[in-house]
């Protein structure tokens, strides 16, 4: 299997369903690696949400490869664009890593005040999803959590652990695009 096939197979192994495969052909998407795609996983009996993930945001030549996924309560083509924009920033602007935030410059969904993404551990899926060993290297699979500007500022001031603790304490509904800021 090639690099792209291994990434896709890793998602399928963990989420136990086949994805729909998309290529966002608008804007500067042509500047992304030719293999780059966004995978859409429909809800199943065991996973009651839509899941969108990057495939080949990382490349074999990267010293640390990362792939991202996010969740949605509904099917949303806009999330294909959002992940493509995030991957473009990663490949052409600044390599992203765990605990980084990205500014999408638009709402996550609808009129959401979540206009940023936080790169977090895949708490809902655990280490089985987080790590893929391939060709004597590890590719990291992280959760991209939509957050507000106030939450970004809180993370900068208090740290990632304080923000994630606050999410847990307040029982944040990560699928609710109309959620209020926790800070």
Architecture blueprint of SSEs:
Elements: H1 3-15, E1 20-22, E2 37-41, E3 50-55, E4 65-72, H2 78-92, E5 101-103, E6 114-120, H3 127-130, E7 131-134, E8 137-148, H4 149-158, H5 160-170
Parallel strand pairs: 4-8
Antiparallel strand pairs: 1-2, 2-3, 3-4, 5-6, 6-8, 7-8
Helix pairs in contact: 4-5
Key traits:
globular; 8 strands; alpha+beta; 26% strand; eight-stranded mixed sheet
State the major sheet.
8 strands, mixed
The number of distinct structural domains comes to: 1
Cα distance, first to last residue? Answer: 46 Å
Helix residue percentage:
25-40%
Describe the 3D structure:
This protein has 183 residues and is an alpha+beta fold. The chain has one domain. Helices cover 29% and strands 26% of the residues. The chain has helices at 3-15, 78-92, 127-130, 149-158, 160-170, and strands at residues 20-22, 37-41, 50-55, 65-72, 101-103, 114-120, 131-134, 137-148. A hairpin with an 8-residue loop joins strand 2 (37-41) and strand 3 (50-55). The longest helix is centred in the middle third of the chain and has 15 residues, at 78-92. The radius of gyration is 16 Å and the shape is globular. 31% of the residues are buried.
Task: Report a brief summary of the structure.
By secondary structure, this protein is α+β, with helices and mostly antiparallel strands.
């Amino acid at each position: 299997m090639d690099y792209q096939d291994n990434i896709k197979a890793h998602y399928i192994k963990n989420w136990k369903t086949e994805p729909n495969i998309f290529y966002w052909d608008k804007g500067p998407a042509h500047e992304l690696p030719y293999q780059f795609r966004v995978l859409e996983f429909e809800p199943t009996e065991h996973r009651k949400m839509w899941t969108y993930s990057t495939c080949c945001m990382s490349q074999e030549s990267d010293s640390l490869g990362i792939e991202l996924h996010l969740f949605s309560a509904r099917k949303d083509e806009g999330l294909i664009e959002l992940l493509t924009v995030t991957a473009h920033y990663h490949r052409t602007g600044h390599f992203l890593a765990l605990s980084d935030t990205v500014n999408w410059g638009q709402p996550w969904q609808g009129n959401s005040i979540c206009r940023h993404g936080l790169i977090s551990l895949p708490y809902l899926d655990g280490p089985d999803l987080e790590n893929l060993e391939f060709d004597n290297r590890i590719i990291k699979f992280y959760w991209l959590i939509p957050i507000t500007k106030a939450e970004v500022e809180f993370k900068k001031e208090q740290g990632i652990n304080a923000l994630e603790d606050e999410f847990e304490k307040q029982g944040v509904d990560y699928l609710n695009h109309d959620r209020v800021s926790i800070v």
